[in-house]
Structures are given as structure tokens and as C-alpha cells.
Amino acid sequence: MPVKQNRSEGDRADAFGFMFPILFFMSALIMVPVLGTLADSLYRDVTYLPRKFIGLENYLALANDPAFWKSLRFTFLFVAVSVPIEVCLGLCMAMVVNEAFPFRGFVRATLLIPWAVPMAVSGRVFELIFNYSYGAANFLLHVFDLSREPVNWLGSEIGAFAALVVTDAWKTTPFAAIILLAGLSSIPGELYEQAKIDRASLVQRFFRLTLPMLKPVLIVAFLFRTIQALQIFDYIYVLTGGGPGGSTTSLSLFAYNHFASGDFGYGSAASVILFLIAMSLSTFYLAGGAVRRTL
Amino acid sequence: MTKEERIKKLVVGAGAVFTLLFCLSPFFYMILTALSRHTDFLRPETHYVVTFSHIHTVLTSQSIHFPAHLRNSVVVSLASAGVAVFTASLAAYAVTRLAFPLKTFFMLFVLALSMFPEISLVGYLFTIMSGLGWINTLQTLVFPYVAWTLPLCLWILVSYFSQIPEDLDRAGLMDGCSRFGVLRKIIFPVAAPGVFSTGLLAFIVAFNEFLFALMLTTDHSARTVPVGIALFQGLHGETPWGEIMAAATVTTIPVVLVALIFQRRIMRGLTRGAVKA
Known about the structure:
- By secondary structure, chain A is an all-alpha fold.
- In chain A, 76% of the residues lie in helices and 1% in strands.
- Chain B has one domain: Orthogonal Bundle (MetI-like fold), CATH 1.10.3720.10.
- The two termini of chain B are 41 Å apart.
- Classes of the chains: A mainly alpha, B mainly alpha.
């Protein structure tokens, strides 16, 4: 079919022109920096010292650096605690706003607010909320008589960890709810009608119908949130600065601190580790059916 | 009404109240602090006295530079969103209309890019921008932000463009339009709401970005609001909470209004893209 062949050859030439700008931006500002970071991680690259190729020495140094292992442990612990809370609470919120009630549109709109406010800004608000002497958190604990002494939120290891989990949950739970709401509203209503006719209880309908139908979206939300939470930086930088005693230094902050002090080789090596962890999870994400279906 | 239905109604009502309180209470606390003479107004012995002095200080002080940060943020976010939407539209047109090899691979690759940790780019971006002599300029942020918002824009626009029937294109091509002419004169007008939502999302994502701005700017000539507020410290040790919350309020209220007004559009965009927080 000569005509069709002609068309697709013309297509290819046109396609290159249309794709050129996006390919330029993505290679120059994403691929080049990532490969540059990878290359930097093989060098001794410290400000004021001559750059020198040292192979895997930065990685060996990381393996022997207790601060690196501490930050890796904190990062995983943070993900393991915050992501399940966020997704489960997000599912509850999604199920609530999926029902019909007065002012539902307004409640749905407020879900967007934590997402739309810059994390550096909401981070400062939560820094004040967790202030030891006059923050709202200790005020509420006092009013409801939950704690005799004010809690030293940002100055103790457990307090700082909890404060970060709460702050991150505030930002991402409503976002998880928005994603899950899209999944919920795509479950056909007839299925629920049928389940009611079959006299399935509310609880049965949730476990036998909602949860299985929502499984693909839930998996996507979990993986997506995990990949994001692994990279946490903004809230930690603002709320705890990685403290107290380095106990809340995430991998991103660990790498940033080395960049900021001028050690680009070591910071790059730590970034590459985080990159590899995030990308290995992304493979699962990309392999997931939910992505393919939209193509 | 059965007992079960009554319980359900009660749970939904309580859940709705909880959701509202959850999302809004930090926001109200921020405004209350911004308008209070004393930061410790929650203490029983402290009275709440309304004052606009914090907001006034933040908007006029020569040393805080908040208006400069705000202007930088708006300029950078507008420019990045504009370039990103235009670039992504071209690509989305090619993806939905033209046959070319590795298309599916390209879409998945873009999705993978969107999940790269920012920290794995920022060190080398600093090296590149230093080499160009661009540190502490606005373009040092615009270029990375365009690249950073492109995956989200592309995925959303592809989903909008693929809903436009190709017969419309063919009619345009028959009339002698070029491919670009079809995009400009037919696709853009038809997909205008989608293009607008995409731009809005790109703007918000760029406006909220923190790490690149922290690393690539050094003072108020290019510093953006998130970095300005994060680094906002008092001169004499005591944290100026009133001023910080005033700056936060001035920044947040327009964002919140936009979110409330364009709620449906943003949600549709987010769930279509579902790529990035």
C-alpha cells in the first residue's frame, strides 16, 4: 500500500519537529543532570580541591558512614509509617466524599488545599503548631487533658518523627483521597444495588465489592506515595533541619547537606543510591496495568 | 430508613466534618496567628488582639524582600507553565495524531522521568548553571521547571487531545492547513479548557517547588516565595512568627481561591495525570 507508507514517512518527519522541544528539555535538564550526577559520584569533587577520578571510593565511604546508614534507616522508617496511614486515611476520606451530602463540592474542594499550598509554607505553619511553649499541638493536648507536661515535639527524636509524619499526612492524605475518589466513582453503581438486593451488609459490601474493585488504584496510590515519600526533603528542611542529632535526616537531606558543604562527589553518590531505590520501585509502578490502560 | 442507612449517614456526616477540620484547621491557625498581636494567643493568660501590622510589615519592609520573592515566584511559574504547556502540546499532538516508532516507550519513559528524585538532578544542575553564569537568575529556575512539569503536562494533554475526533484534523488538513496550523487553529480551541487546566497545574507545581530554588538562588533577586519563607529568620534570635504567618497567608490565600474556583478542572487534571504530587 504505497499511499499508507507515504503517510507514515511524512508522519515521522513531522513527528520529529513536534517532538524536538520536549526531547531537548528532557535531555538537557533531566537526563544530562542525572548522568552528570552519576559521573560526579565516581570523582573526588570537593570545592577548592582538584577533581580526581576515584572509582567507587565514594560508595565505599558511604558503606562505612554511620550517618548514611542512619539516614537510610530513617527514610525507610518514615515511608513505612507514613504511607500506610496516608493511603488508609485517604481511602476513608474518598469514601466519605463519594457519598451524596450537602456541600459535598465544597468539602471536595478543600481536599485540594493541602496539595496546593507550598510545602515550605505549610511546613512553617506546622513548625509553629509543634512549638514547645505556645504551639497548637501542645495546647490541644492540654485542653483535652491528654498530657500533663507539654511534649517537646521538635526537640526529641520520637516527637520530631511524629511531627513529620503528621505534617506529611496533612499534605498527602487528601491527595491520596483525590486519586482514590477517581477509582471509587468508576465502580458501577448497579453493583452496589445488586449487592443490596442480595442483602450484603455495609461491611460486606466494603470488603467484597469496594476493596477488590479498587485494588489496582490502591496499588498505584501505594507505589506512587512510596516513591514520593522516599524523597522527602522540604518538610524536614523546614521543621527539624534533620535533627535532633541527625535523627530525622532523610537521604535527600543527607545528600543536600554534602552538596551545600561543597562535597559534590559524596553528595552525588548518596543521590545515586536514592535514585536507584526510587527507580526500582518505579518499574513496578510502570509495569502496573493501570498505566498501560490509559495509553 | 433502616438502621444501617442511619449509621451510614452518621458516619458520612462525621467523616465530612473531620475532612473539613483536617484540611482547614492549620490554614485558619495560620491566619489567626498572622492577625494576632501575640503569637502565644492560645495561652489562657494572653488576649487575642487583632492587628494588621504583621501583614503591613511583610508587604513593605525593605529587609524582608517578600514582594520581590512573590514577583520572582509569579514570573518564574508563569514562564515555566507557558513554555511547558506549549512544548507538551506539540508532543501531545504528535503522540495522538502521528505514527512514529517507540511511542509507547516514550510515554512510559516520560512517566519514569517524573519519578526521578529531585536530589539526583540538583547537584549537577548547580554545576551546569554555574558554568552558564546563571546562578541567582530567573532563567536558572525556568528551564529546570519546564522540564520538571513536562511529564505531568504531557500526560494530561495526551488524554485531552485523544478525545478530539481525528475527523476534525482531516478537515483542516484538506483545507490546506499545515500540521502546526491544525494544532493551533483546531486542536487548541477545542481543547482550550484542558489546556488551561494543564497550565494551572503546571503553575502550581512550579510555584511550590523548593529544592531547585534553594540550591540555585542566593538572594532576593531570584529567590522564590517558598525559599524566602523557609529561610525567614528574625534578626535577634526570636522567630518572628507573626510576620512569617503573614507572608504565608498572603501567599496561600490566592492559591486557595484558585483551588476552590477551579476545583473540578484541577481534580480532573490530577486524576488524568496522576503523575506527580
